[in-house]
C-alpha cells in the first residue's frame, strides 16, 4: 500500500508536458509575398472559415486568434500555389524561383528534361568503337565502315561525327553549323521571331516579386532624439568646435564616442551637413 501512495506522490509532483505552440506562424521564407502564397491553405485550414481567404497587408498580421481582424476592402484572394506532396525546392521551381542562392552541396534532383538531354548527349557523343556501353537501353545508329584490301576494318564513320561537336549543349550550335554550310538565309526564314516573355504566362508570384523589386528604396531620414539634442547642446556650450576636447571629456562623454562620431552628430544637429 505504501508503494502505491509513493507512486501517486511522484506522479503528482511531475510537471505536465505541454507542447510549445507558437502564437503565430513563422516566416522562414524571408518575403511576405511568398509567405502569404505559401501559407494560404494552412491559414484557411486553421480558421476553417466559410468565406474565402483574404491575406492581410503584412504577413506578421496573420490573425491566428479568435478575435480575427477584418480584412481590408482592396485586398484580393491569393490563390494557394503550394503543393504539399512536393518538396520546398520543387515548389519554388514550379513558381519560377530558387530555394537556394548558393551552389548545391549534395545531390540534386534532375528533371525529366535534364534526363532526356543527358541521354541524347551521351548517344551523340563520339565514342570508342571497342568500348562497352553502360547504358540501360541499346543505342542503334548507322555508320560507314572503311576497309582495306584484305577486308579489315580501318575506320568507322558515325553519322553524328559529321555534326559540329557540342560538349556544352549549346542550343545555338545548330544555327552556327547552318551558317557555315551557307544555309543561313534558309534557316533565318524558318526561325520564328522571338516576341519576348508573355506576362500572362508567368505566375502571379513572379510578377508581384518583380513589381516589389522595381520599387525605389526610400531612405528614411535619421531624427535626433530630445536626449541627444540636450547632450550635444552641453558639449557645444562647453567646448565649442573643439572635438578633441569633447572626446577627452569623461563626464559629458561617458560612452567614449570617437571624434568622427561626435563631429557627425554636431554637424547634423547644427545643420552644416
Automatic annotation (TrEMBL):
Residues 1-24, 65-89, 162-203 are annotated as: Disordered. Residues 175-198 have a biased composition (Acidic residues). One of its GO terms (biological process) is ribosomal large subunit biogenesis. Keywords: Nucleus, Ribonucleoprotein. Pfam families: Nop16. Belongs to the NOP16 family. Involved in the biogenesis of the 60S ribosomal subunit. Component of the pre-66S ribosomal particle. This is Nucleolar protein 16. It comes from Colletotrichum fioriniae PJ7.
Amino acid at each position: 500500500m505504501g508503494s502505491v501512495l509513493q507512486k501517486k506522490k511522484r506522479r503528482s509532483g511531475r510537471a505536465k508536458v505541454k507542447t510549445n505552440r507558437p502564437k503565430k506562424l513563422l516566416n522562414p521564407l524571408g518575403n511576405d509575398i511568398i509567405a502569404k502564397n505559401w501559407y494560404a491553405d494552412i491559414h484557411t485550414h486553421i480558421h476553417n472559415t466559410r468565406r474565402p481567404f483574404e491575406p492581410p497587408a503584412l504577413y506578421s498580421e496573420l490573425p491566428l486568434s479568435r478575435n480575427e481582424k477584418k480584412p481590408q476592402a482592396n485586398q484580393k484572394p491569393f490563390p494557394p500555389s503550394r503543393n504539399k506532396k512536393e518538396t520546398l525546392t520543387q515548389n519554388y521551381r514550379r513558381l519560377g524561383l530558387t530555394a537556394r542562392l548558393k551552389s548545391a552541396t549534395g545531390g540534386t534532383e534532375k528533371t525529366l528534361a535534364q534526363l532526356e538531354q543527358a541521354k541524347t548527349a551521351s548517344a551523340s557523343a563520339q565514342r570508342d568503337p571497342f568500348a562497352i556501353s553502360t547504358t540501360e537501353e541499346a543505342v542503334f545508329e548507322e555508320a560507314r565502315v572503311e576497309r582495306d584490301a584484305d577486308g579489315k576494318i580501318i575506320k568507322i564513320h558515325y553519322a553524328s561525327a559529321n555534326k559540329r561537336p557540342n560538349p556544352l549543349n549549346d542550343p545555338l550550335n545548330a544555327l552556327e553549323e547552318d551558317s557555315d554550310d551557307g544555309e543561313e538565309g534558309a534557316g533565318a526564314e524558318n526561325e520564328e521571331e522571338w516576341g519576348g516573355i508573355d506576362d500572362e504566362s508567368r505566375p502571379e508570384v513572379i510578377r508581384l516579386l518583380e513589381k516589389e523589386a522595381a520599387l525605389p528604396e526610400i531612405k528614411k531620414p535619421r531624427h535626433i532624439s530630445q536626449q541627444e539634442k540636450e547632450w550635444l547642446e552641453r558639449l557645444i556650450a562647453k567646448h565649442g568646435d573643439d572635438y578633441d576636447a569633447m572626446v577627452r571629456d569623461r563626464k559629458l562623454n561617458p560612452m567614449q564616442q570617437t571624434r568622427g562620431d561626435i563631429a557627425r552628430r554636431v554637424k547634423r544637429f547644427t545643420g552644416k551637413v
